[in-house]
């Protein structure tokens, strides 16, 4: 199907080459297109039928009063008057303009330290995705996790005078070979009144297999993460030049993780960080390797996670689990829920994989999960 689409595009290109000379402008080839996602569009506003106009609504309709006794009632005018009284409406705290966001860095991972509590940062962070045309797939304010739906990065499509001429008329004929999604996780910062904002990227790409094309996973792209963090910083109120400087000068850290086995051959991961920092880095690593945090117990140091297959619902090759060969070629996973346990050991933190009964997981599966976390934390 993609082959025929490309033939059609090439044919149309031949018809218009002679008449096109525009190469610049906002839609030209000069613009930076590292992030050029196809945005979701809004449907036209609903129209009220002629026989159901607002004039048919009477202001004397009975509305429950906020402070009326059980069984009481009030008119609409009374209701409006009560709502207008000072102190009767509770409003969420407004996040102040963020002109002092700090960028932290650990290897190729970057995250933001934002003034305000996670509860204050969440609405602004969510608005960023909505106003930029992203569809939100899942969100859980209770644990501070939001994930977007897949989006097509139009930057992967070759730009030129032909496509610019056809854009807006036959744009649907052009399909990028990559899709991206992002996950944001908010954690209370080390300093009171701050929030640490972690953003991770996941991607899939369309590849040729004989005469057909299939989707498969591709590695997380730290540069796409940095570019999206830059956009978010500017949305929060940071000047463009300051955002660029912050992301460019953030210092990397030295490797500090080791895979070990105890006397009983139980695998574990030893991180050269105190448990507070190790907790946040482990959460970021889990996002990177494809686990969704369904719940967490900070006091006990446990992440409750499930694997999120990016190819679920997409006709393609098997994803992450088959790649790790947790089972045979045709066997499906019997268990996709895991518990990641962190235990402080002075200036270091030990990471283990537990089963559902909170017992140490000594299986090959547990070892492979730790190996994946090691690759992110080393």
Largest sheet: 8 strands, antiparallel
Radius of gyration: 26 Å
Percent in helix: 25-40%
Number of helices: 9
Strand content: 25-35%
Structural classification = alpha+beta
- Distance from N terminus to C terminus (CA atoms, Å) equals 43 Å
Q: Tell me the name of the CATH homologous superfamily of the largest domain.
A: Kinase associated domain 1, KA1
Task: Tell me which CATH architecture of the largest domain applies here.
Answer: 2-Layer Sandwich
Oligomer: single chain
Based on CA inertia axes, which overall geometry fits?
globular
Q: How many strands appear in the DSSP assignment?
A: 14
What name does the CATH topology of the largest domain carry?
TATA-Binding Protein
Which CATH first-tier class of the largest domain would you pick? Alpha Beta
Features:
six-stranded antiparallel β-sheet, TATA-Binding Protein, 9 helices, 378 residues, eight-stranded antiparallel β-sheet, 27% helix, 2 domains, alpha+beta
Write the layout of secondary structure elements.
Blueprint: H1 2-16, H2 76-84, E1 102-106, E2 109-115, H3 118-131, E3 136-140, E4 145-148, E5 151-152, H4 161-166, E6 178-188, E7 194-209, E8 212-218, H5 222-236, H6 240-249, E9 257-261, E10 267-271, H7 275-289, E11 291-297, E12 302-307, H8 320-324, E13 337-345, E14 348-354, H9 364-377
Antiparallel strand pairs: 1-2, 2-7, 3-4, 4-6, 5-6, 6-7, 7-8, 9-10, 10-14, 11-12, 12-13, 13-14
Helix pairs in contact: 5-6, 7-9
């Amino acid at each position: 199907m993609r082959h025929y689409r490309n033939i059609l595009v090439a044919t149309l290109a031949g018809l218009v080459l002679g008449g096109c000379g525009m190469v610049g402008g906002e839609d030209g080839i000069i613009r930076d297109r590292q992030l050029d996602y196809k945005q979701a569009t809004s449907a036209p506003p609903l129209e009220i039928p002629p026989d159901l106009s607002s004039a048919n609504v009477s202001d004397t309709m009975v509305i429950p009063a906020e402070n009326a006794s059980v069984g009481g009632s009030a008119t609409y005018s009374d209701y409006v008057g009560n709502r207008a009284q000072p102190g009767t409406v509770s409003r969420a705290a407004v996040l102040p303009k963020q002109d002092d966001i700090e960028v932290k860095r650990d290897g190729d991972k970057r995250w933001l330290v934002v003034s305000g509590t996670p509860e204050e940062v969440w609405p602004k962070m969510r608005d960023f995705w909505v106003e930029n045309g992203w569809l939100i797939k899942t969100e859980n304010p209770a644990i501070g996790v939001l994930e977007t739906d897949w989006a097509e990065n139009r930057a992967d499509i070759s730009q030129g005078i032909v496509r610019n001429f056809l854009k807006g008329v036959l744009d649907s004929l052009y399909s990028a070979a990559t899709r991206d999604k992002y996950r944001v996780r908010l954690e209370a910062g080390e300093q009171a009144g701050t929030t640490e904002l972690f953003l991770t990227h996941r991607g899939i790409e369309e590849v040729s297999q004989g005469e057909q094309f299939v989707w498969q996973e591709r590695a997380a792209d730290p540069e796409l993460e940095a570019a999206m963090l830059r956009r978010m910083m500017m949305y929060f109120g940071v000047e463009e030049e300051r955002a660029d400087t912050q992301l460019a000068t953030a210092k990397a850290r030295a490797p500090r993780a080791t895979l070990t086995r105890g006397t009983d051959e139980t695998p574990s991961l030893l991180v050269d960080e105190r448990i507070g920092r190790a907790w946040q880095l482990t959460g970021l690593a889990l996002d990177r390797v494809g686990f969704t945090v369904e719940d967490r117990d900070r006091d006990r140091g446990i992440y409750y996670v499930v694997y999120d297959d990016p190819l679920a619902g997409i006709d393609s090759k098997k994803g992450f689990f088959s790649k790790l060969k947790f089972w045979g070629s045709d066997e499906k996973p019997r268990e996709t829920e895991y518990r990641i346990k962190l235990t402080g050991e002075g200036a270091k933190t030990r990471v283990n994989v537990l089963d559902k009964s909170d017992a140490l997981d000594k299986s090959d599966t547990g070892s492979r999960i730790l190996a994946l976390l090691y690759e992110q934390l080393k």
